[in-house]
Each structure stands twice: as structure tokens, then as C-alpha cells.
Amino acid sequence: MLEESEALRRILETVTPGPVTWVPLELSLDQILAQDMIGLVDSPPFDNSSMDGYAVRSSEAQSGSTIRVSAEEQAAGADLGLTLRQGEAIRIFTGASIPEGADAVIMQEDVKRTGETIIITEGVEIGENIRRRGGDVCAGQKLLWRGDLMTPTRIGLLASQGIAEVPVHTRPLVQIVTTGDELVDPGVPLLPGEIYNSNAPMLQTCVTRAGGTGAASHAFDDPKELSDVLSAAFAVSDLVVIAGGVSVGERDYVKEVLNDLGVKTGFWRICLKPGKPFLYGRHPEGTAIFGLPGNPVSAFVTFSVFVRPVIRRLLGFTEGETGLEEVRGAAGEELRNKGDRPHYLRGVLENGVVRLSGTQQSHAIFGLSKANCLVRLDPEQVIAEGDSVPCFLF
Ligand code: AMP
Ligand code: MG
User: Fold this and answer.
1) Of 105, 163, 229, 314, which is most buried, counting CB atoms within 10 Å of its CB?
2) Do residues 297 and 336 both lie within one domain?
3) Residues 284, 236 share a domain
4) What is residue 179's predicted lDDT score, i.e. its pLDDT?
């Protein structure tokens, strides 16, 4: 059985960032820039006031002086092209263009207004309360680098430059294919022997969270139907994630059907708990295929460890950024892996202390739902209470 790290290495070996596409700025959140971004305009684009007050000549606006207020005023918006005359002040508001001849803005709190004059109570210095053209960004300046993550503030920065679209790597299309005669969709009553299909919505939203575009379809345990559903998936998807039917049961048809469809199996079975029957292959036309065990916890763990990194790599994250974030937690209880495979347990990490969340069986989705991390134990490892253990946040 293949080791986890070797399995991941083989999966990621051939994966590079996907094709570049320009998307509207607001849709680029959490994606990776595919190109450097250069400033297009000076910011601010013109000298303007940072206060509500009066545009003045600083030499005339010293403590105690009286200045006549011009009949004209300049608000934010169209630049009226005003000129400040000797001995006058022009009423001005935040964001408004500075009139020709003014070299400072005195805040309205620093004057006493009586009729058409102001008396200066607190003098200004040259340049005070003026935001200079290009004082923040100059046209031609590099603002963001290829590989940068798009955040709300970077989106704001590019918008302030008049940039409406950015180049990112296309979100991969990921088709989830669930299998099993016992499964029905949530929303209808259960008949004896049936269970609800929880993997489809769970994995589809795992795809969304990883940054891909997810869709789900289902096939009953019938080779012909499975073949049709998978063929349809290969035709349109970048990745196909099959859940269930990859084990050794007589009604586990996935391997046989993939083989008939010409898929080359990279490997089947890995040295990991949960997740032993995990399968990885490639369709001749390039689609990567993952076969996850059907039990929801096993499906979640193998998705997180092996599929999520592929989606993140396609989006342009570096290999070091594709895995779940690893932090250390102090074990809140003794943790023991009696088995000979690495074991990912479901944990709740709180204030640096990690405890197991409920029953650890691989069908137990309630415990999984309460967890916020996977706790990884090496084969036969025992962690004493208080000792540190790696936790992978999700
Ligand atoms: P399999 O890998 O097909 O042998 O399935 C292993 C276990 O997971 C069985 O108990 C299945 O009923 C269950 N299972 C398979 N697929 C799903 C699914 N989509 N949602 C919930 N449970 C599932
Ligand atoms: Mg099954």
C-alpha cells in the first residue's frame, strides 16, 4: 500500500495552475492572481481636501487673522476650476479639488465664521489638509504580484485604479459522482434499507470551499449506469470525484468500469486510516479521477488530503499552500493509534487544546460535524495528555 506522502506526490506531480481567465473584480475573491498588476492612474488623481473647511493661502491664515469668504465654493465632484484671490478663503469639502492658488485647507473647527468672514483661531501650515496627487499610488507602480491572493482590500485597491477585471486561474469543474443502491436524496422519506446521500452535498460544498465549481450526480450499483454517468462526467469536468464503490465488495463496480472506459489507474489503496480503498487515475483525455471510500468520514478525510490540494494547485496556489493549515495542539486526553497505518482522528481544537469529537467510526458524521481539525497520529503512536500533536484545520 502506498504511503500518504508518496500518493500526494504522484497526484500533484502533473498538476500545474489551470488556464488564465479574466473575471470581474468582485468575483476574484480568494483566487490567485495570474499576472502582476500595475497602477494605471495616480491616486489620488488630483490634489484634494482631506477636511471640510476653507481653502486658503497658509501665509494669510495665521492665528487671529480675518479672511473674507468667497461667494464660490468647491464640493467633491466636478472641478469648478476656481482660483483663490488674495485675502480670500474658498469654502471647500472633503474630497474636493484644491482651487488654484490655495496651499492649505483650514478645518472649519479652527475658524469662527461670522457672515462673509472667518476669524482664524488656529493657524495652518503650508500643505495642511491637502492630499497630494499620487501621494498614495503613482501610475506605473507595481501594486500586486502574480501569485498574490485576492482579498477584499486588494479588490478595493484595484477598483481605486479603475481596474474592472483581473486575470486568475479558471476554477476547475469538479463532478462528484456518488454510487450506491441504498442512497436517496434528502427531502424524500426513507424506505427500509435506504440511507440519505450525505456525501453529494458535503463533497460538493468541499469543492466550493476549496475554490472549485462543484456539481453532483448519482449512479446506482449497475455497471452500465455507472459507465454512462462517468462518461458524461469525463466529457465536461476537470476532476471527477467518485464516492463509494471502490472497495472490494462484489457490487463495487468503480474499478472495473473505469478500466473499461480506458482510465489508467495511478494507484489503488493507500496506507491511511480512514481511506484505505482510495483510488487515483487519469482518463486518456486528461481528467483526473479520484475514488473515495463511501463512508462519509473516509470520504471527507481523503478529499481533504488528496483532492483539495489538486483544486488549490489548479487555482495557482503553490504546493506548500495546498494542504490544510497545520498547527500544533496540546492533547486534552491521551491519544492512541493502535494500528499500522497513519490515522486521522476528528478533533476539536480550542485555546490550543485538542480533544476528540465523538465516536471515531468512519460512518459517524455527527462527530465529524463537530470537529474543526484532523489530528494525525503515526502508526502505533501514543500521545500523552498535554503533549503536542499536529492538527490540520478545516
Ligand atoms: P462503499 O464504499 O460503497 O462500500 O460504501 C461504504 C459505506 O458508506 C456504506 O455503508 C454506504 O452505505 C455508505 N455510503 C456510500 N456512499 C454514501 C453517500 N453518498 N452518503 C452516505 N453514505 C454513503
Ligand atoms: Mg456502495
Assistant:
1) 105
2) no
3) yes
4) 98
**Is the overall model pTM greater than 0.85, yes or no?**
yes
Give the separation between CA 331 and CA 5, rounded to whole angstroms: 24
The CA-atom distances, in angstroms, between 187 and each of 184, 195, 197, 198, 285 are 9, 12, 10, 12, 36
Mutate to test the pocket of ligand 1, among 183, 220, 256, 257 (most ligand atoms within 8 A of CB): 183
Confidence of residue 367 (pLDDT cuts 50, 70, 90): very high
Ligand positioned closest to the Cα atom of 218: 1
Nearest to 247 by CA among 269, 225, 226: 269
94 and 52, same structural domain? yes
User: Residue range 199-205: average pLDDT?
Assistant: 98
Q: Are 311 and 211 contacting, i.e. CB atoms less than 8 angstroms apart?
A: yes
**Closest Cα to residue 296, out of 189, 183, 212?**
183
Å from CA of 179 to ligand 2 middle: 6
Contact 214/174 with Cβ under 8 angstroms? yes
In the prediction, which pLDDT does 123 show?
Answer: 97
Q: Are residues 249 and 287 in the same domain?
A: yes
298 lines ligand 1 (CB under 6 A): no
Residue 236: inside a domain? yes
